[in-house]
């Protein structure tokens, strides 16, 4: 009886772990997607490439660099 | 999962989808629940994605998981960046989802919910998704080349030139049409006008916050902007109740049109970071949130549809726009089923982010399915309204009359009972002076959305806030399309004019910026002005024209796709793109024929011009009709040329008179796949 209860408990724990892992993964992907959509990742890559830290000057430079790409990006109807 | 379970699962999904489709198609006389539409759509999308798209990926496109994509080969951390497929999916969806899938289905609901819903579901699975998927993959295999570049290299110079012309025309007409939607939604609405006016200083504030206070923290700034927008919506109620402030923000259609034209020009010449970029972020933030909220609202509340499956207006006598169900339902709903504009996005930023070829299926085909679902939700929002209310909101004064009693009597005589008192009470509930003659689709969608939400969150007391939230959401959406579209059009003009006189092609030369922005704004502003002055409300002529342009662009995209397929030696699977191509040719050419030559003045531009001329009307109105006829006629002729060019190319390749040259970048083995295996 206790073996069955133990087995059931382990199964519940495994399921819970799996759900938790999947939720964490989904949340991570969601945040990554939002960061990409809102150009935060592009800014991070820019800082990486330039070996710079975030500052108003660095951000202004990033905006200058990405301006052409951004304004040429069509938004659909 | 064992095979037997998979077979059982997919059989169940297919049967459920078929049953739901049969229910919405065959049910007559009683209201049905909106969930039938949702189930029919989701099941069909699931089957389409699982089987049809995987067939296309394997057999037609021979997708190669070992082939390196441009994102991997040309990775520069800027334009070309290998990105997680879900992230690319979100990015792609945010770019393709605009006001089109919301407005089109609301307008097409005048035929009843059935024709539009079936077209959204079937059109997406068999047409729109294929276009997006195939063009995306072909662009990936050509280092992220744009659709117009592919048209030039695969079909010839004529193809490239026509694509360019189609793109610029669609942008101009689209901007004119969607600007008219905003004007119609905001005219005589101090609450809505105040809220939208406030989004401009809010965007500037966000721009300054991002540039000076917290550089690069866009999500944070967007949340801040959203909170301020919510405050503006609440403040709008106070404005609408204050006699002095309400007078300031109660504007006529003509005044709003002028303000929008000034806004479009200003947004195009101001630095991007100050207005365009923060507005784009704010709009995307609100868009993604509201679409998710609407989806949850529909699933949780499961509203009933009051609109019948088919209305008497399938015969072409509809008040919202004139024309029979074929072809007009199919051009009214473009985004949501098949949208040529998507081919620009599938061959724009997205192909430069794709990490592995197989991911094009989820991003291209799957992204369009998600957009199609948005269109189904818009159809539900329109169909939950009482048909009498729907027609009262969407019918122009030129058809139903100016006075509320006359309009209500006309609509009731059509078999859709509504009273002036009922409309006055609804207008009061949503905080508007009147809801009669609010053409354009946005107010009807807002009333539907407010109706759905007010049944659960906050009750009737919150109806006005929900209505203005929906109006703000749509107008914000549209203004973003307006400023981004003006800029994109400006760059296209500068590219072209640079061939005539070099300095005009310099994108940073201020006189060129002012000149080309002025040209672009004047072009769409003219169509907007024409719509505002149109006694039939403008949507009647502008929206079909936009639909025709959009789907003519899809015709060009499918011509490019079919040409490449033939050259790849996959002609035996050519029906995959040829069937939607033939359908679009039938739809767009028939619709253009009707819009230009139909003898009914409510449908044909030239017949309307003749009617105005014989009545001694203003010469400007007559010119407008002739201009619309010329635009539709010229575009159809140009697309017919592309079609003939493409057909000749297929014949040359298939008969062996021309070598089948595929202009893909050479195969390079991916390193990402190997890294993933390790």
Topology:
The complex is a heterodimer of chains A (77) and B (678).
Chain A: H1 2-37, H2 40-50, H3 56-71
Chain B: H1 3-26, E1 32-33, H2 34-60, H3 70-73, H4 85-96, H5 100-108, H6 113-140, H7 147-154, H8 157-186, H9 190-213, H10 218-241, H11 243-249, H12 253-269, H13 276-301, E2 304-305, H14 325-332, H15 341-346, H16 359-383, H17 387-394, H18 397-400, H19 404-413, H20 420-429, H21 442-454, H22 463-500, H23 510-533, H24 539-567, H25 575-597, H26 605-614, H27 619-654, H28 672-677
Antiparallel strand pairs in B: 1-2
Helix pairs in contact in B: 1-2, 2-6, 2-16, 4-16, 5-16, 6-16, 6-24, 6-25, 7-8, 7-24, 8-12, 8-22, 8-23, 8-24, 8-27, 9-10, 9-11, 9-13, 9-22, 10-13, 10-22, 12-22, 12-23, 13-22, 14-24, 14-25, 16-21, 21-22, 22-23, 24-25, 24-27, 25-27, 26-27
Alpha carbon gyration radius of chain A: 22 Å
Count of individual beta strands of chain A: 0
Order of helices and strands of chain A: HHH
Query: Can you summarize the main beta sheet of chain A?
Result: none
**Strand coverage percent of chain B:** under 5%
List segments of chain A where confidence is low: pLDDT < 50 over at least 5 consecutive residues: none
List the total number of helices of chain A.
3
- Assembly level: heterodimer
Number of domains of chain A: 2
| Radius of gyration of chain B, in angstroms, nearest whole number | 24 Å
Large-scale geometry of chain B: globular
Secondary-structure element series of chain B: HEHHHHHHHHHHHHEHHHHHHHHHHHHHHH
Question: Could you provide a short overview of the structure?
Answer:
The complex is a heterodimer of chains A (77) and B (678). By secondary structure, chain A is mainly α.
Task: Report on this structure.
The complex is a heterodimer of chains A (77) and B (678). Chain A folds into two domains: 1-37; 39-77, no CATH class. Chain A has helices at 2-37, 40-50, 56-71. Chain A contains three helices and no strands. By secondary structure, chain B is mainly alpha-helical. Chain B has 28 helices and two strands. In chain B, α8 packs antiparallel against α24 (539-567), α9 (190-213) runs antiparallel to α10 (218-241) and α12 runs antiparallel to α23 (510-533). Chain B starts with a helix and ends with a helix. Chains A and B meet through α1, α2 and α3 of A and α4, α9, α10, α13 and α15 of B.
């Amino acid at each position: 009886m206790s073996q069955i209860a133990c087995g059931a408990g382990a199964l519940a724990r495994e399921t819970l772990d799996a759900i938790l892992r999947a939720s964490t993964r989904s949340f991570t992907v969601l945040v990554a997607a939002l960061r990409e959509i809102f150009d935060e990742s592009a800014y991070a890559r820019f800082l990486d490439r330039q070996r710079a830290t975030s500052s108003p000057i660095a951000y202004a430079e990033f905006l200058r660099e990405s301006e052409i790409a951004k304004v040429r990006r069509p938004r659909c109807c | 999962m064992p095979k037997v379970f998979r077979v059982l699962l997919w059989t169940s999904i297919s049967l459920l989808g078929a049953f739901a489709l049969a229910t919405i198609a065959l049910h007559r006389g009683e209201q049905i629940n909106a969930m039938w539409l949702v189930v029919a759509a989701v099941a069909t999308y699931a089957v389409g994605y699982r089987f049809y798209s995987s067939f296309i990926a394997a057999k037609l496109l021979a997708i190669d998981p070992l082939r390196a994509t441009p994102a991997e080969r040309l990775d520069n951390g800027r334009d070309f960046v290998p990105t997680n497929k879900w992230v690319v999916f979100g990015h792609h969806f945010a770019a393709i989802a605009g006001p089109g899938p919301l407005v089109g289905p609301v307008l097409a609901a005048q035929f009843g919910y059935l024709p539009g819903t079936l077209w959204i579901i079937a059109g997406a699975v068999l047409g729109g998704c294929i276009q997006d998927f195939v063009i995306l993959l072909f662009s990936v295999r050509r280092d992220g080349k744009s659709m117009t570049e592919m048209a030039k290299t695969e079909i010839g110079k004529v193809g490239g030139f026509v694509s360019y012309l189609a793109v610029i025309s669609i942008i101009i007409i689209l901007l004119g049409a969607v600007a008219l939607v905003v004007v119609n939604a905001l005219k005589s609405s101090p609450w809505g006008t105040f809220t939208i006016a406030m989004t401009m200083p809010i965007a500037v504030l966000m721009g300054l916050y991002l540039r000076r206070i917290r550089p690069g923290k866009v999500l944070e700034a967007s949340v801040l902007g959203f909170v301020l927008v919510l405050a503006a919506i609440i403040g709008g109620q106070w404005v609408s109740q204050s006699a002095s402030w309400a007078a300031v923000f109660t504007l006529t259609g003509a005044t709003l049109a002028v303000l929008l034209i000034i806004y479009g020009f200003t947004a195009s010449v101001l630095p991007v970071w100050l207005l365009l970029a923060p507005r784009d972020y704010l709009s995307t933030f609100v868009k993604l949130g509201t679409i998710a909220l609407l989806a949850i609202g529909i699933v949780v509340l499961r509203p009933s549809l009051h609109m019948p499956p088919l209305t008497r207006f399938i015969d072409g006598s509809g008040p919202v726009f004139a024309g029979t169900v074929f072809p007009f339902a199919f051009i009214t709903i473009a985004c949501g089923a098949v949208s040529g504009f998507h081919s620009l996005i599938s061959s724009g930023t997205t192909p430069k982010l794709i990490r592995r070829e197989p991911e094009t299926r989820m991003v291209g085909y799957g992204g369009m399915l998600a957009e199609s679902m948005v269109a189904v939700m818009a159809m539900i929002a329109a169909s939950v309204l009482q048909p009498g209310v729907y027609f009262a909101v969407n019918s122009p004064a030129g058809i139903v009359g100016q006075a509320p009693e006359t309009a209500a009597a006309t609509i009731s005589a059509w078999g859709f009972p509504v009273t002036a008192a009922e409309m006055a009470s609804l207008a009061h509930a949503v905080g508007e002076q009147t809801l009669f003659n609010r053409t354009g689709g946005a107010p009807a969608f807002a009333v539907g959305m407010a109706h759905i939400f007010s049944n659960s969150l906050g009750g009737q007391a919150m109806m006005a806030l929900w209505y203005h939230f929906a109006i703000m959401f749509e107008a914000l959406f549209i203004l973003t399309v307006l400023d981004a579209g003006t800029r994109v059009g400006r760059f296209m003009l500068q590219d072209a004019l640079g061939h005539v006189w070099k300095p005009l092609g310099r994108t940073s030369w201020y006189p060129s910026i002012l000149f080309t922005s002025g040209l672009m704004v004047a072009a769409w502003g003219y169509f907007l002005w024409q719509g505002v002055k149109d006694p039939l409300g403008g949507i009647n002529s502008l929206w079909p024209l936009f639909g025709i342009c959009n789907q003519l662009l899809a015709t060009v995209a499918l011509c490019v796709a079919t040409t490449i397929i033939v050259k790849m030696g996959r002609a035996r699977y050519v029906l995959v793109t040829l069937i939607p191509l033939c359908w679009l040719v039938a739809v767009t050419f028939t619709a253009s024929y009707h819009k230009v030559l139909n003898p009914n003045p409510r449908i044909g531009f030239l017949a309307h011009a003749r009617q105005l001329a014989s009545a001694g009307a203003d010469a400007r109105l007559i010119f407008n009709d002739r201009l619309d006829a010329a635009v539709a006629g010229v575009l159809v002729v140009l697309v017919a040329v592309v079609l003939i060019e493409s057909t000749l190319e297929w014949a040359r390749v298939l008969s062996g008179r021309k070598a089948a040259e595929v202009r893909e970048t050479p195969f390079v083995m991916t390193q990402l796949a190997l890294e993933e295996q390790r």
